[in-house]
Write a structure and sequence with these properties.
By secondary structure, the protein is an alpha+beta fold. It has 9 helices and 33 strands. Strands 1, 23, 24, 27, 28, 29, 30, 31, 32 and 33 form a 10-stranded mixed β-sheet that branches. Strands 2, 4, 6, 7, 8, 10, 11 and 12 form an 8-stranded mixed β-sheet that branches. Helix 3 packs antiparallel against helix 4 (90-116).
């Protein structure tokens, strides 16, 4: 028998790689075993999707998680059964048929939506235009994940806005684009190319009894038929069409436009009308100015005592702004022979804002509106069509514009860590707005400009006690109920002359002031980035006056807004005990919870001991509150939501055990929340102060607005039962997914 060959000796690096591979395998197996055991354990107390999911899903939910998971399971089983390859036989086709049915159903619904956007009266062209846009912006009539409208105040308007996003352009920058597709069943030769096109743009008329809407009425530009292909031409359709320079556009006008396409058989198809607005371009176009709560502005004065955190809390609760359009003022612009045909409200707010008109929300826009820019250089504004609120017999009287603001990227919590928020432009929460009224003659009137120390606009502390873009919001439900209808004319009152930090105390705002110049700010940032030596600075550091950042030039929003793009029901709801409920949505996304019917009444856990992460500040021990904690994963040891590295600020303790940071490590950090267990937590808090009547107040809770959470899991504490009809709103930029 020949001797066996010698066993080769393995090098140290090879052994290390083998060991690492074995460790990964063991960790994966342990994770699977733990997940199975743990989820089965809490599943015994689970409000399972199979038994009670219907009570948490209202009509119109966009969640198809279970069906999607089933489809994935079919494919995974087949993939494994055939050794990692799909078989090329009819069994595979049957499996794919499930997917094809789902795709077909989605495609059919999409085609139906597109067909609805096309006017096919007396037309049978083979090429259908759709998705019309101006400057790459499309009119969005309804956000896909828009939640139900909450109960409105008793005296709120019965009118509603026509759209959730209205494109706004500057008068000298207007470019038209659209997409087109072949009509189903049309001859391929006819639909091969666009033979000609025609664009018609006309002045928008927003009421039925104030002017004709015939095709030839109020036309501002008609391109006529532009032939691309004939005996003398063979041109492709341009990627965009610019508004002719010789045709001037007036600021404040809203424009309707549509396009007609000719196919190769010389048959036409015409899109439906869509619209956009023309907004202010230069600084001189703005009659309004940035306004702010006087107490907030004072916290940025050089002589004001206190550190950054103390001043930040002085600016809380967050302010509410409102402006009045008196009936007499409105009538002074309008006449029987020159009625109102459109009304455009332009608004911006720093950090983030939401606008209402006569108590009705104008858009479900997300936590960052305006979009994030260097606010010391550029700030975008939004436009809203409010014509519906000003025309008709039901809308006679005075009107009120309301603006709610959040901290956003502008007045962020002064916490430092991995992120460097102190490098961003910073100032008190501030807004700017004005209203354009266009009459049938085409004349434009500007009214309601924001001005400091004028009776038209007022400011008060509101119901948002704290707001942070990442760590969450604290909402005072007692104040929310007490101030209900603050943005309607029925609750308008004369402004108080005495300043007060109290809620529901309306006073006159002041103008935004800063002694910091644009050049000084740029040079300071350059020095901090080592791009400029301090000795090369041409400006001196300001040591007097107001030290808020300068605000940049206003321009219309150039990207689609952040909107609720999907409304997702939880896949599972687990009872964790002590009044704590875990919601699992099956996938991670960015957004927050929305409670269609409010929150149930809170309970106090046994021995007044709240579960980890759900405690509250000691000074509010007698307050009633409910907390919602968000996270993307669960901890292996406890099953609690993993809060490590929440908000990306790098301040955490590494989990419930094996603290990587010593006790008190974050104590010196300015403005670290003292109720976050030394971990920055994604947490929304709904609170009712002591001595307030709790009954039915929690039914007013709907959602946080000026914060965003990355999560798959959410914990609600502490209630005897989970809220009914709870959904997650997935917020993202309103762009079509590929």
């Amino acid at each position: 028998m020949p001797p066996l060959p010698p066993i080769p000796r393995l090098g140290r690096r090879t052994l290390l790689l083998y060991g690492l591979g074995i460790a990964i395998i063991l960790f994966s197996l342990g994770n699977i075993i733990w997940s199975t055991i743990h989820l089965n354990r809490i599943g015994s107390n689970s409000w399972s999707a199979a038994n009670s999911k219907a009570q948490f899903i209202s009509e119109g939910s966009f969640s198809n998680s279970l069906r999607h998971s089933a489809i994935e399971a079919v494919n995974i089983v087949k993939f494994v059964a055939y050794g990692g390859m799909f078989p090329e036989n009819h069994d595979n086709e049957n499996a794919n048929a499930i997917i094809d049915d789902r795709i077909d159903s989605n495609s059919n619904s999409k085609d139906a939506r597109q067909e609805e956007s096309v006017n096919h009266t007396d037309e049978s062209g083979s090429i259908i235009p759709f998705e019309l846009s101006v400057n790459h912006l499309k009119l969005i009539t309804h956000a896909p994940g828009k939640p139900p409208t909450p109960p409105l105040p008793p005296h709120a308007s019965s009118s509603v806005p026509n759209e959730d996003f209205l494109p706004v352009v500057r008068p000298n920058e207007v470019t038209f684009r659209w997409r087109h597709r072949p009509r189903v069943g049309s001859p391929a030769a006819d639909a091969a190319r666009v033979k000609a096109y025609r664009i018609i743009a006309r002045r928008f008329v927003g009421c039925d009894n104030c002017g004709s809407k015939g095709d030839g009425d109020g036309v501002l530009w008609d391109s006529d038929k532009v032939v691309l292909i004939d005996n003398e031409h063979d041109n492709d359709l341009p990627t965009s069409i610019r508004w002719p320079a010789e045709t001037a556009l007036d600021i404040g006008h809203m424009i309707e436009w549509r396009v007609t396409l000719w196919d190769m058989a010389d048959q036409t198809s015409t899109s439906s009308w869509t619209k956009f607005a023309v907004g202010p371009e230069k600084e001189d176009d703005w009659k309004g100015e940035w306004i702010v709560h006087a107490i907030d502005m004072a916290t940025f004065h050089f002589d004001r005592k206190g550190d950054a955190c103390e001043k930040w809390y002085m600016r809380h609760p967050l302010p509410l702004f409102r402006g009045l359009l008196p009936y007499q003022s409105l009538q002074s612009f309008l006449h029987d022979d020159d009625p109102l045909v459109s009304a455009l409200l332009v608004v911006s707010g720093l950090g983030s804002f939401r606008a209402t008109f006569d108590g009705v929300p104008l858009s479900p826009s997300g936590p960052v509106d305006p979009p994030f820019t260097d606010y010391s250089q550029r700030v975008s504004y939004r436009g809203f069509d409010v014509t519906n609120f000003l025309v008709g017999d039901d809308n006679v009287g005075s009107h009120v514009v309301g603006i709610t603001v959040g901290s956003g990227w502008w007045d962020h919590r002064p916490v430092t860590g991995m992120a460097k928020p102190e490098l961003l432009a910073n100032g008190p929460l501030t807004v700017i707005a004005q209203l354009y009224l266009t009459t049938a003659s085409g004349k434009v009137h500007i009214t309601m400009p924001t001005k400091g120390s004028t009776a038209t606009w007022q400011v008060s502390r509101g119901h948002i006690k704290e707001s942070d873009l990442f760590t969450g919001e604290m909402i005072d439900l007692s104040t929310l109920t007490e101030m209900e209808g603050w943005d309607t004319s029925s609750k308008w009152s004369i402004a108080e002359t005495k300043l007060s930090p109290s809620q529901n105390h309306w006073s006159l705002p002041v103008s935004y002031i800063t002694n910091i110049t644009q050049r000084e700010r740029r040079e300071k940032l350059s020095v901090m980035a080592n791009a400029l030596d301090k000795s090369e600075m041409t400006t001196r550091t300001t040591r007097k006056g107001y030290l808020a950042s300068p605000i940049g030039q206003l321009f219309p929003s150039e990207i689609p807004p952040i909107l609720p793009m999907e409304r997702i029901a939880p896949d599972e709801i687990h009872d964790l005990g002590s009044g704590r409920w875990l919601l699992d949505f099956g996938r991670a996304f960015s957004g927050m919870l929305h409670f269609d019917k409010g929150l149930p009444q809170p309970i106090i856990p046994h021995n007044n001991t709240y579960p980890r992460a759900h405690g509250f500040r000691k000074e509010f021990d007698n307050d009633s509150f409910i907390t919602i904690v968000y996270g993307e994963s669960l901890e292996l040891t406890t099953g609690d939501i993993n809060r490590v590295l929440v908000a990306g600020l790098g301040l955490h303790d590494g989990g419930p055990r094996h603290k990587s940071k010593p006790e008190g490590f974050t104590d010196y950090k300015p403005c670290f929340p003292d109720d976050h267990d030394k971990i920055l937590t994604q947490k929304d808090i709904y609170v009712v102060p002591k001595n307030a009547e709790v009954t039915e107040l929690y039914s007013k809770a709907r959602q946080s607005h000026f914060t965003t959470h990355a999560f798959r899991f959410a914990e609600i504490c502490c209630t005897s039962e989970p809220p009914t009809n709870v959904h997650a709103l997935m917020y993202r930029t309103a762009m079509q997914e590929w």
